């Protein structure tokens, strides 16, 4: 289950293979579609501040795949992307600032990166990280090393540790702040009170500019478990 960017709707993916859009206030079912052909674990999320949804599930032949959907018309997928034949459920992560999608799964030793542009998903990169993953989470932008052009930092959970994964954009000038890589990001402050939201008000998240490299607090640690 995932919230829309403005907090007015929810999207869910379930083992009945259905992707559902739900009005968060009224609990009204706004739309639904069978997103995949296999009833194994399925995830769904919103593609940032856009009408598009992303589903991660399995095809009829048990291949892992992504589906891109337009919430305004769920009759058919905008596109499907076949990923691999791995069997673990997937953990898709979407960065609304950059429009990048990171996809890995339980038991995977690698991650795939896509970019959302003009209503399409474009493959950017694949990379491997050794230990099998059990989960992952995207860190806020203020945790990134902006002087190293680190546009995404993800924490990966393994059986014995939490490991940082870093996605960096190569640029000619090292250790310089590249403004175009870091658009405004979530400011960490509420845009509405609970009472206002329940009363029907909508508001996009409050954003802040990333312009001062001294705000970056990136440190690489591996937290070993017992």
CATH fold call: Methylamine Dehydrogenase, Chain H
* Number of separate domains: 1
Q: Which architecture would the CATH scheme give at its second level? A: 7 Propeller
Please give the count of helices: 1
Contiguous uncertain segments of 5+ residues: 215-226
3D architecture notes:
With 226 residues, this protein is mainly beta. It has a single domain (2-224), classed as Methylamine Dehydrogenase, Chain H, CATH 2.130.10.10. 2% of the residues lie in helices and 46% in strands. It has one helix and 18 strands. It has one helix at residues 194-198; strands spanning 2-3, 9-13, 18-23, 29-34, 38-46, 52-58, 64-70, 79-84, 90-95, 100-105, 110-117, 120-128, 135-138, 150-157, 161-168, 185-186, 207-208, 223-224. The strands form five sheets. It has a four-stranded antiparallel sheet, with no helix packed on it. Strands 5-6-7-8 form a four-stranded antiparallel sheet, with no helix packed on it. A four-stranded antiparallel sheet has the order 9-10-11-12, with no helix packed on it. β6 (52-58) and β7 (64-70) form a beta hairpin. The longest helix has 5 residues, at 194-198. The radius of gyration is 18 Å and the shape is globular. The two termini are 31 Å apart. The model is unreliable at 215-226 (pLDDT under 50).
């Amino acid at each position: 289950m995932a919230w829309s960017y403005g907090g007015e709707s929810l999207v869910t993916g379930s083992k009945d293979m259905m992707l559902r859009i739900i009005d968060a206030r009224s609990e009204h079912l706004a739309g639904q579609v069978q997103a995949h052909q296999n009833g194994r674990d399925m995830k769904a999320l919103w593609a940032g501040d856009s009408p598009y949804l992303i589903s991660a599930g399995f095809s009829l032949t048990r291949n892992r795949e992504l589906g891109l959907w337009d919430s305004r018309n769920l009759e058919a997928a905008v596109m499907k992307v076949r990923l691999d034949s791995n069997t673990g459920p997937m953990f898709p992560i979407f960065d609304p600032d950059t429009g990048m999608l990171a996809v890995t799964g339980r038991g995977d030793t690698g991650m795939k990166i896509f970019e959302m542009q003009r209503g399409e998903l474009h493959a950017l990169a694949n990379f491997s990280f050794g230990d099998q993953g059990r989960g992952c989470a995207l860190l806020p932008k203020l945790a990134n090393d902006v002087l190293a052009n680190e546009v995404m930092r993800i924490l990966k959970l393994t059986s014995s540790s939490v490991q940082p994964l870093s996605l960096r954009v190569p640029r000619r000038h090292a250790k310089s702040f590249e403004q175009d890589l870091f658009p405004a990001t979530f400011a960490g402050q509420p845009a509405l009170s609970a009472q206002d939201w329940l009363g029907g008000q909508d508001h996009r998240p409050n954003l802040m500019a990333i312009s001062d490299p001294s705000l970056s607090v990136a440190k690489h640690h591996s937290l070993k478990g017992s």
